[in-house]
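Structure ticket #2291
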Amino acid sequence: MSIIIPIFNVERYINECIDSVINQTLTDIEIICIDDGSTDNSLNLVKEYSDSRIKIISQENKGLAASRNVGIEHANGEYITFLDSDDYLRLDALEKLYAVCQENSLDIAITKIINFYDDNREEYSDDYFDMKFLKDACGDNVFSYRDVYDSVLNISVTGPAKLFRRDFIKDIKYHENLIFEDNPFFVEAIFKAERVYFYDEYMYWRRIRKNSITQSNFSNFPDLIEIYNIIYDLLKDLEVYEDFKDKIFKKKFTNIYTRFVEVTDEYKPDFFEKIQEDFPKSLMDLEKDEDFGKFNPRAKFILYTGINSKTYQEFESAVKEYDLKKKKRKKSKKKPNIFKRVYNKFLKYIRKMLHFPR
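Resolution: structure written out below.
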């Protein structure tokens, strides 16, 4: 078993991370630590461990994706897992997951993540990492993407909290110099995998801190546009695009808008500029598809609004207004007016009293 841990300026957290690995109940492991040009004391803290299973690779700063690729190249274990250097594992995680991989000859084992806040250690779960839909759909059975057709693109894409058979992923690479790099890597893996299993327990603790990549580096959020274009090409190369084109369309444009709203105003002009570069090109391809008219209405509204808006403020406010109107329509349909409710209750009472058929 190979555990790949990219390390960059995490001196406050690296001991907790490494301790959770060297104390695993599964002892036949190699721990590959890639120091990605740390400028703090992280590397020295790792060097203090006398555990012979730890292998240290130092490189100049190249980013998370490059570090994981280096780890894959140097891994020797039958299975590979990724661990972020500010997170930690349950102490029996690797033993439990490796056993299920061996028992079922898996390509991928997926498990659940629990979040915790860095400042107060308070834990919380969320639907994205719980993936209840996988349990409901597959139970304890091995599956492939064909068995979870409607929800395969909703599986958590995060690199950690999964075991990958090394021979299976040796030719799958992380796209470097981009954030959200987990997305295309996992999409390629899940659509190629024939034997996947969902282990319905929390095995991975994910730290939420203010200065993490996706919490602070808003300047790179437009990378998501390129990430989704890579995924579009992947689905076409894997010859599954026609089956998933409506789903990936919805995911691309709704997620781009979600990330756009998250960034601070300082970074929105640049993000909006990249939206206006990409969306017209996307529309040209999409309009050639005879099924485009059936695609998700909100995603189409985001697409058209991104093209036609003159400013990022106009784009953002138009989609917010669309969502507000949709919410009001949904609410009005859900709750009939007071007179109708009273009338229905009265009618139900009369029928009951007089034993009228419905």
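Closing remark: The CA atoms of residues 219 and 267 lie 6 Å apart.
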